[in-house]
Amino acid sequence: MQIILLYYYIRHPYNFDKMYNKNNKNNNLLNLKNKISKNKKIVLAPMAGITDGKFCKKYKNLFAIVCIGAYDLDKDSQIASEKIVNRGRKEFLYNLDEFDNIIQQNIMDAKESGAPVSVNVRFKDINKSIDKIKTILQHSDIFELNCHCRQKEITDLGIGQELLKKENNRILKNNLKIINKINNELSGQLNGQLHGSSTPIFLKIRANFISSNELINNLNNVKDYFDGLHIDCFYPNKNCADLDYLMDLRNNFKDKIIIGNNSVNSINDAKNMLKYCDFVSVARCILRDNIEWIKEINNKTEKYIY
């Protein structure tokens, strides 16, 4: 019975194909698809101060994608991280002048996991972050903009989850336009396309910070500038993911890759979330070394589906 359920819920069509067929000029998701093992549906989520390259490479051939970060790209966001560390939380702290070497080494280490590497980033001033953005786009498989962090030191800067608000939509759109322009220049696509054969852009977002309707409206205003959504299905005062919120986003962004996240600790959790997304990401269960169920999903997906 468990095998039948896995077959039904894990065999979820890749939206890479839908998006590629919709616009043959948009090759970046097709390139990403070719890097992901078809039998894998579980993503390693970014965890502040934890998921660097060395952490990722401990998990060889386990994940569909590994996410490193969050990494700060300018002084304001780095100062905020220092304040967070000073009150006892983990963050990545480093000399910003050495960022290029640091991030390239971490991406190289993370790729030893055998999975494509997503880099999650934060910044207050994009104009002071452009060189670092270029480096990430040149070396990573996915560029993930952090619209998720809820730590006060970050949100006081108007970034993290604050970027999801309507009043900050103009800032989000401007940042995404600049990132896409850099992306296209690096890939040689300067003929008016938004993407071209370049690095996919994802947004890491949080559910229930604002209503799903408001978030959908705000994301629709920038939908031409991102390829995927990584959704923390945070459910206030509940010990489970808000799958209704996830379903709302899935129904409104069918041409985007969607990674679901939150409270995924077992095969059953994963198959329930995979009804509404392409992948699910995990975090805390990895810290508890709860990974045998991931190996089981990988093996069963390969054996019974592909």
UniProtKB/TrEMBL annotation:
Domain of life: Archaea
Family matches, as InterPro entries: Aldolase_TIM, tRNA_dU_NifR3-rel
NCBIfam families: nifR3_rel_arch
Record's protein name: TIM-barrel protein
Organism of derivation: Methanococcus aeolicus (strain ATCC BAA-1280 / DSM 17508 / OCM 812 / Nankai-3)
